[in-house]
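Q: I'm a student working through a structural biology exercise. My instructor gave each of us a protein and asked us to get a predicted structure, then write a short paragraph describing it. Mine is Intraflagellar transport protein 22 homolog. I'm not confident about reading structure output yet, so if you can add a plain explanation after the tokens, that would really help. Here is the sequence I was given:
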Amino acid sequence: MQPNKLKILMIGPAESGKTRIANYISESINIEEAEAPRPTQGVRIVEFELPNLNVNGKSINIDIELWDCSGDHRFESCWPALRVGVQGVILVCSPNTTQAAAREMELLYNYFVSQPKLSAKQCVLFYNCTDEQEEIDALNLSPTFSKVSQVAVNLKTGGNRLKIDFSSYITSVLHSINKES
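A: Happy to help. First, here is the predicted structure for Intraflagellar transport protein 22 homolog. I'll explain a few features afterward.
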């Protein structure tokens, strides 16, 4: 049975572009109109419908509750509440990802994906790049991420591609949930 609403967390290091991606996916804002980045305070929940999703040969509409989570560790005490009922996790990192940020991605994966026993199919890594030359391979992520889909995101040139990749990810989450039930 299909759920009628999915709770998806979007989390990653501070200033990795989570809010811009969330706004674009949810069609909350046109990228050309985007303001200067402002740090998210705790969490911001964006609700929207993803129409005409092809799941098992059927076209369905699914409501998405996208939790755009701050990358600031001073909100870490909120993490247990954020994780309750989560059905999917989008990890976001950017080209300025350092070794420390790569370790942070591992910490986030362990806390939000492994501990609540989500499958690798319920997680995706969005590599928010601004330049065509930037490669996901440059991230030097641990082998933990070998089974996680990794998607290069460029909102300036590939926004439509992002929407397709997001829809594919949501389909993957729905398939994973259906296997469990």
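A: Here are two points you could use in your paragraph. The chain has one domain: 5-180. The helical segments are 18-25, 79-83, 99-114, 159-180. It's a good idea to check both against the output above yourself.
Q: Great, thank you!
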